[in-house]
Structure formats: structure tokens, C-alpha cells
Design brief:
The protein has about 525 residues and is an alpha/beta fold. Helix content is about 30%, strand content about 15%. The longest helix is centred in the last third of the chain and has 21 residues. The structure holds 3-acetylpyridine adenine dinucleotide (N01).
């Protein structure tokens, strides 16, 4: 399908927005299928999340032998991950290697954002415009814009007056920031802050952590890659990947699935089992008992164990108390750390309770409860307008000029998280209504990429021009997503899953919580002739 300058009314088969792991895989897949494609990326290189979030301590919390592409056997055989959980520089260099190895960069325009994408019903084309003033017409528009890509700007009163330097973890400079001899303040104690704080503490003269809400965190127990383990996986990588696709979260978790519920065992055994999960580290903790994440009693037992752990690690009782979360485990995305709680035992680290809010930023620091904390550098790790933020920032209009952000004003509505009714030939990779951020992202991105690629090839083979989610498929899907979410405890407090961290944003849990049934449904839909989609 080489249609550049064609007479069919479009310049290119597909526009892909974003060159993170999703956009790169999509470009490669489309080229493999001989579609013409152009990808636009706001950054100056590939890598998405791993391009922007280059703050000290940034590291993946899914094992890298799994958080990696599987489309090329040669690639997965050749690449060696040096640690169980790779650090950001290694993941970024992997993305760059993939881009070079598969000539993906040839199709990417960097330093360029898509500002609008309007559907032209007459020609069944997407009219796309960039912030560089370029316009082009594409048959398909594929949003690979990421779930955590729209950073929340720090909007603290007085920030402009601050005489020192400030940084945002999600827009970290490419040059190293030197904290030596500096008084540093970190605002935010989510996954990002919890990774950055121990590393910054090692360099800074004084570190003040401004905590609004304490968080649960479990040690990663990261270690150098075990070469025997790596060799075993590489001996039959394809089978390992195939097995993982059948597992919850699309990930092999090295933990025996416990058929027991929390209170099926006595207190002593319960403690021993929690202890074993803690020592194993990573996300095993939440699978200690069958009901750890699903019932209030099970959750409370796990939460209490984790609060006790904080008390054991942190020497100062008042600081330990302040660090203990009051919410239940999992209603904010649990964190995985290296030496986070132990960092508060350092003489140069102070925890500042800003649960009543940061009053203002002054020329010389941050003021909380009338007390000014003097700082040379402030690091904001204050999170994202997740899942819909980046999509809503693009002027996307479907049939009859309907704006996607208006359709989604009360929460995103999409079928399988792949398409939204009224927006033909527009796809979202890991979009709202798919399992996305509750899975191991790279394999589940590839599942979407393959689904979309195969779908476009099917349309071409069948001489069809459009595919569009049907309203009567989308509505029950949205209800199903909500019903599944209601069976968990994850919507129980303000978090970025639900939009609860963004003022004025509609509160919805737009993530399908069961990867296994989701993948089966996607396959079933295709087997039934793209059931729930209108093909035209
Ligand atoms: O963002 P967050 P994040 N005044 O929203 C605080 C993924 N990730 O960047 O809880 C004071 O979780 C806010 O406080 P509160 C992962 O999925 C993965 O840390 O809203 N504080 C919170 O403490 C993760 O969940 C990896 O009360 C303010 C923090 O800022 C997701 O990204 C690594 C404030 C924001 O936490 C997002 O994590 C890193 C204010 N005005 C991230 N506004 C790995 O794979 C916000 N806060 C390892």
C-alpha cells in the first residue's frame, strides 16, 4: 500500500503519534506489513517514558527479561539485561538499539507534536496537523501516546519567586543534576519520589521530603541478572513469552499462587508468609494470600504487616508513624523501592508533613504550616494527568466534528480500549478500557500492536476502507470495565487511575482489570469477524 501522493485522497496509510515502546512497535509492525507510516514524537529521540523520566533512581519494576519486546527472536536472544530490574539508562539504550536495528527512526519525525486530528467523513481520512505547521492526510491514526505522559505542572503559589533551581522528574534534564553540597526538597512520594529520594539523599547536603500522603512500598530486592536464569529463558524464550500471555498481568511472577485466604492460617503462619513475600520483594507481596487484594479483611492484614515493617525499619518513632499509610494497600498504586524507608535513618534527611498542603514557595524554599524550609533545589515528583491526559490535549474530532474530549467529559468510553464509537480508523494503544497499566506493559502493548496491524491487513485484503467501534458494543464494554473495577478495592481512594489526583477530572476507573479474559475477548472478536465493530 504505497500511497504517497496518491489519488485516493490521502498521503500516507497511517500516522502514529508517539515513539515510546508502543509507537516504535507499531511503526515496525506496519512496515513489516508494507503500510506507509509516519510517526511524530514530541521528544528528540525514541523511548517515551524512558526518554522523559531520566531522574536519579528511575528503574523499571517489572523484570526486564519480561519488560522487553518479543517480536524478534534474534533481538531477545542478543540483548543482555544486566540487572533483574533495569535502570532507566539501560532501558533507554535498549529502545535506541531497537530503533536502529529495525530502521524505525527513518519513519519518525522528532521534536514535533500532533496538535489536531480531524476525521473527514467524505474521504474517510484523518487530517492531521503538527506544531511545525505540517498537514497530512492519513487513512488511519494510531495513538501511541502513553498512559503516564501528560505531566502535571507544579502550580504552587510563589514558584516563580524561588531563587534556586527546580526540576520535574518527568521532564528531567539530559545533563546530570549535581546535588553535592545542596539543600534539596522533594515534593511527592509516589513511585517516582520513592525511587528518587534514596539516590538524592546520598548526594545532597540536606534532603527534605515533602509528603502529602504516605505510601506503601515493598523492596525490589534488585540484583545483577542471574546468568543461569537468563540462559534457561533464552533456551525457549518463545514458550516463556507464550506462557506469560496466559498469566494475570501478562507476567511470570515467581510466587506460588496461594489457594489460601488470609484468615485460613493462624497468626504465626500468616506472618511467616508475609515475611517470605517481603523477602522475595517486588509485586509478589500482593499475592501472598488469595484475598489480599480483594477483601477488606485480607487487605487490612497485609496493610498492617506493611505498616509494622515501616516501624521496624525507621528508627525515629515519630517519622515512622508519619510514614505509615492510612489508606488500604493497593488503592494507590503500590511502590517498589530500594532502601526507601531506611533513607529516613540518615542524618541528612527530614520528613516534612504537608498533608494540609504546601502553603507557598518562597524565594528561599518551601513554606508549610508557617515554617519555611530553606532549599537550593526543588524536585517535583507530583505525577500525571494519567490515561486520558495526552489524548485530551490533542484536538481530536470524529464524525460530525465531535471532539473526543467532549465525548469523554464524564470519563473515557471505548470498546476494548482500542477504538471509540464515532471515531473510525482511530486506534489507541493501551487505551482506556484495556488492561494497560495493570499489566506488564511491553508484552501487552505488543498484543495491541499485533491486533491493530492484523486488523489493517484484514481491511486491505477485504478491500474495506473503515473500521469503527459500534455504540452497542462500546456501552456494555464500558459497563463491564466498571463492574470489574467495582469488584476490587483499587478505586477506594484518590489516585491517578481514577483521575482523583487531577482537580475537576471525572472520577472513573477506566482500566479493565483482568488481562487473561481481555486477551481472550480480543481473539474472540476477530474470530467472529470483528464483532462489535462496523466495517465499511
Ligand atoms: O506519581 P503519583 P508518580 N502537594 O501520582 C504528590 C508509574 N511509575 O510519578 O498522594 C504535595 O503516584 C502526591 O500526593 P497525594 C507508576 O505506575 C512507575 O510517583 O496525591 N504533594 C504523590 O505523593 C506510578 O504509579 C515506575 O496526596 C503532591 C505524588 O505527588 C505512576 O508512574 C516508576 C501535590 C505523585 O505520585 C505515577 O507515579 C515511577 C501537591 N500539590 C513511576 N501534588 C516504575 O516502573 C501531588 N503530590 C518503577
Amino acid at each position: 500500500m504505497n500511497n504517497a501522493g496518491n489519488t485516493a485522497g490521502y498521503d500516507i496509510d497511517a500516522v502514529v503519534v508517539g515513539a515510546g515502546f508502543a509507537g516504535m512497535a507499531m511503526v515496525r509492525k506496519l512496515r513489516e506489513l508494507d503500510f506507509t507510516v509516519r510517526c511524530f514524537e514530541h521528544g528528540s529521540d525514541v523511548g517515551g517514558t524512558w526518554y522523559w523520566n531520566r531522574y536519579p533512581g528511575a528503574r523499571c519494576d517489572a523484570p526486564s527479561m519480561q519488560y522487553s519486546y518479543q517480536f524478534s527472536e534474534e533481538l531477545q536472544q542478543d540483548w543482555h539485561w544486566t540487572e533483574i530490574y533495569a535502570a532507566q539508562p539501560e532501558i533507554l539504550s535498549y529502545a535506541q538499539h531497537v530503533a536502529d536495528r529495525f530502521s524505525i527512526r527513518d519513519h519518525i519525525t522528532f521534536n514535533t507534536s500532533i496538535t489536531q486530528a480531524h476525521y473527514d467523513e467524505k474521504t474517510a481520512c484523518w487530517e492531521v496537523e503538527t506544531d511545525a505547521g505540517e498537514s497530512l492526510r492519513a487513512r488511519f491514526c494510531i495513538m501511541a501516546t502513553g498512559n503516564l505522559s501528560s505531566r502535571l505542572k507544579p502550580n504552587f503559589e510563589g514558584l516563580d519567586d524561588f531563587a534556586g533551581s527546580w526540576y520535574q522528574t518527568s521532564n528531567w534534564p539530559h545533563e546530570q543534576v549535581d546535588f553535592t553540597g545542596k539543600r534539596v526538597g522533594v515534593v511527592g512520594t509516589g513511585s517516582t519520589g520513592i525511587q528518587a529520594i534514596p539516590v538524592i539523599a546520598e548526594q545532597a547536603k540536606q534532603l527534605s521530603v515533602f509528603q502529602r500522603t504516605p505510601q506503601f512500598s515493598v523492596p525490589a530486592n534488585n540484583a545483577p541478572q542471574d546468568l543461569e536464569y537468563e540462559a534457561n529463558i533464552k533456551a525457549d524464550y518463545a514458550n516463556f513469552r507464550a506462557q506469560n500471555y496466559t498469566k494475570p498481568l501478562a507476567m511470570a511472577i515467581d510466587v506460588k499462587r496461594n489457594p489460601l485466604k488470609t484468615f485460613d492460617v493462624d497468626e504465626h503462619e500468616r506472618r511467616e508468609r508475609f515475611e517470605a513475600s517481603w523477602n522475595q520483594g517486588g509485586i509478589a507481596m500482593q499475592f501472598t494470600f488469595r484475598d489480599s487484594a480483594t477483601t477488606m479483611e485480607g487487605n487490612e492484614a497485609l496493610s498492617d504487616y506493611l505498616r509494622d515493617k515501616i516501624g521496624e525499619i525507621v528508627a525515629d518513632p515519630a517519622t515512622a508513624e508519619l510514614l505509615k499509610p492510612k489508606h488500604i494497600f493497593g488503592c494507590k498504586r503500590p511502590c517498589i523501592d530500594t532502601d526507601y524507608f531506611a533513607t529516613y535513618n540518615r542524618d541528612n534527611v527530614t520528613l516534612v508533613d504537608c498533608s494540609a498542603g504546601i502553603e507557598r514557595i518562597t524565594a528561599s524554599g518551601i513554606q508549610v504550616d508557617g515554617v519555611e524550609h530553606e532549599l537550593d533545589i526543588i524536585v517535583f515528583a507530583t505525577g500525571f494527568d494519567a490515561i486520558t491526559g495526552t489524548l485530551n490535549n490533542i484536538d481530536i474530532r470524529g464524525r460530525r466534528g465531535l471532539a473526543l474530549k467532549d465525548k469523554w467529559a464524564d470519563g473515557p468510553r471505548a470498546y476494548l480500549g482500542l477504538q471509540s464509537a464515532g471515531f473510525p480508523n482511530l486506534f489507541t494503544i493501551s487505551g482506556p478500557g484495556s488492561p494497560s497499566v495493570l499489566t506488564n506493559m511491553v508484552p501487552t502493548i505488543e498484543q495491541h500492536v499485533n491486533w491493530i496491524g492484523d486488523c489493517l491487513a484484514h481491511l486491505r485484503d477485504a478491500a474495506l476502507a473503515t473500521i469503527e467501534a459500534r455504540q452497542d458494543a462500546e456501552d456494555p464494554w464500558v459497563e463491564r470495565v466498571q463492574a470489574l473495577a467495582d469488584s476490587t478495592l483499587w478505586g477506594a481512594c484518590d489516585n491517578w487511575y481514577t483521575g482523583g489526583n487531577v482537580a475537576g477530572k471525572a472520577r472513573v476507573f477506566p482500566i479493565y482489570v483482568d488481562w487473561v479474559s481481555y486477551r481472550e475477548k480480543c481473539e474472540e472478536v476477530v474470530a467472529n469477524g470483528y464483532e462489535g465493530f462496523a466495517l465499511g
